[in-house]
Amino acid sequence: MVGGRVSEVVSGVEGAGVEDPFLVFWSEYRLCMLASPRPDGSIHQVPVGVTYDPERRLARVICSGASYKARNLAAHPGARVSVSQVEGARWSTLEGRARVVRDRGAVAEAERRYEERYRRPRENPERVVIEIAVERVLGTVRPEGSGAVP
Asked: Are 117 and 49 in contact (CB under 8 A)?
C-alpha cells in the first residue's frame, strides 16, 4: 500500500474483524476516474481522488465549485455518475446519483477523508464536495460484507 488507511473492517457480518478487500482497495492511494453525463448526452470523464464511506454508502469527490464537473452536476442534481479505479487486472466501479454540496461541514468532512487516503488538500475557498449515493458496485474487487454497499 502507498499511503492511505486499511483499518476499515466489516462489522455485523460473518467474519467480523477481518479486513474486507473491497474496503482496503478503496482506502489505498489510487487515482480514480469520474464519469458524468454532459447535457448533450456525451460522457465527461476526468481523474479525481475519491473516498468511500461504507456506513453512509457514500463516495465523495472534492473539487473547485468552478470546475466543469461541479457546475454540470450542480445544474443536474441526481445525475447518475460512476467512479472507477484500477490496478492491473483488479478494478472496481461505484455507481449512483450525484449531488454537489457546498455546506462547510460536509466539505470539511470530505477534506478530512481525502487527507486520510491521499494527502492534505491545498487551500481552496471555492471547494465543494460531489457526494455520490452508491447504488451499484461493479468489478473484480467487490464487497464481501452485506453492510459495505447495497
From this structure: yes
Q: Is there a contact between 52 and 94 (Cβ–Cβ < 8 Å)?
A: yes
Backbone φ and ψ for 36, nearest 5 degrees, come out as -140, 155
Q: What are phi and psi of 136, to 5 degrees?
A: -150, 145
Q: What digits encode the pLDDT tens for the residues 29-41?
A: 999 999 999 999 9
Give the count of beta carbons closer than 10 Å to the beta carbon of residue 83. 27
What is the DSSP secondary-structure string of 20-32?
Answer: PHHHHHTTBS--E
Amino acid identity for residue 103 in this structure: D
Whether the CA torsion 16, 2, 142, 81 is positive or negative: it is positive
Contacts of 121 (CB under 8 A, 6+ apart): 62, 111, 114, 115, 127
pLDDT in tens, 33-78: 999 999 999 999 999 999 999 999 999 999 999 999 999 999 999 9
